[in-house]
Amino acid sequence: MSRILVGPFNRVEGDLEIALDMMDGRIESARVTTTLYRGFEQILVGRAPLDALVIAPRICGICSVSQSVAAAAALRALGPTPLAGNGALATNIAHGAENIADHLTHFYLFFMPDFARDEYRALPWFANIVERFKAVSGEASRYVPPARRRLLEIMGLLAGKWPHSLAFQPGGTTRALDMGERVRLLGLIAEFQAFIEQRLFGVSLDEILAIESLCELDAYEEKAGGDFAAFLRIARDLNLSELGKSSAAFLSFGAYHGAAGAHFPAGAMLEGKREPLDATQIGEDVASSWFQPTQRSPWDAGTAPDAHKLGAYSWAKAPRYRGRPMEVGAFARQAIAEHPLILDLIARDDGSSVRGRIVARLLEIALLTHALGGWARELRLKAPFCEATALPVQGRGAGLVEAARGALGHWLIVDEGKIERYQIVAPTTWNFSPRDAAGVAGPLERALVGVEVGTLGAKAAAIQHVVRSFDPCMVCTAH
Known about the structure:
Elements: E1 2-6, E2 16-23, E3 26-34, H1 40-44, H2 52-55, H3 64-78, H4 85-111, H5 126-133, H6 140-151, H7 153-159, E4 168-169, E5 172-173, H8 179-201, H9 205-209, H10 214-223, H11 227-238, E6 249-258, E7 261-270, E8 273-275, E9 282-285, E10 318-321, H12 330-336, H13 340-349, H14 354-378, E11 395-403, E12 406-415, E13 418-425, H15 427-431, H16 443-448, H17 461-469
Antiparallel strand pairs: 1-2, 2-3, 4-5, 6-7, 7-8, 9-10, 11-12, 12-13
Helix pairs in contact: 3-4, 4-6, 4-7, 4-14, 6-8, 8-14, 10-11
């Protein structure tokens, strides 16, 4: 048995290292280390509750709206403060646009460039992938950033700026739209839809939305010329449905809320059975984390660093649901939503895989692009976009939302008009968690076991594929 260290990783937000125990060119065990401690939970203690709307979004510039929406939801739960109907719709549009942009960036600029490595030079698709996806010089580096930029102009219309907007409040959003701005909003959505139909999917959006089984996905792969189909052909050739498997335990906090409930529902899936979300079952374990012992529940947990703690190897805590590690993200979200294609992939692949995670993210681009137009048309421009906020001087509230990478929770306790406790559990914390007190590995640690790297060791592209399929954002992880 030998140990190798992989890291730091490029094209990753923040710092990540992974220690791998190897035997005969195969990964026997993995330990994932978050090397950066941020301290946001301590920064927020003692401040006025509304300060969370300024500070929490600065956890991350990539998922800034997600952090804003979670903070606003936690504050709203203190009141409770009513949420304006237009405010809910505007929040959904902005949040959806940010998550689409995240999925798009991940696929084109973070994930696909790894298939342009020399390791694959002898394969028939290599030259085409280099031309399309090679970092910096590939076609995607030219046509994706402008499309992403135009999509994010939605933030200018709805929130004034991006990232770190102050437009997202407990009562809704602070900027109302007029008729001309709604027409422009619908134009931006239509323009982005045309881009993904031409480049990403190579077919109409309706054709992607109609795919409900692996057989139908295979039929799309055979006929389409888009970048999604190119990935599916690579996935088939490299057997990515067998790479990076994790357990069939998934969690979603629910996403894009309105009068009729969440567009993607909250819930958990254990052993293939879906159940309602029970937030009281969420806890954090710090046995392998550089923190002093603390209560498991986010309501009671503290954040007291202990950089010299024996046996610890990560600044990430280990979130657990019913005492179990849970995978979060687009695949988990669509499993909980019972999308037929994702349920078919679970049945065929016996859980999640590298192929499944990427398919789910691209599926969500289609689902959300379609939803954005519907939400924009539901706006009633003469009605309020924000209700007045009057926060109590004491109380507690939780804001549970879905960032692109998965379940994001903010837990807030206020006493005498000041924040007494603020706890954040981010998606990468779930997926990249270290071992808990029982020695149970987190989702990525489990997904790396069994990966064949041959003589390439730490340089094997398979390691990159597994890690990037979870789309790490390490700056969101340790607070």
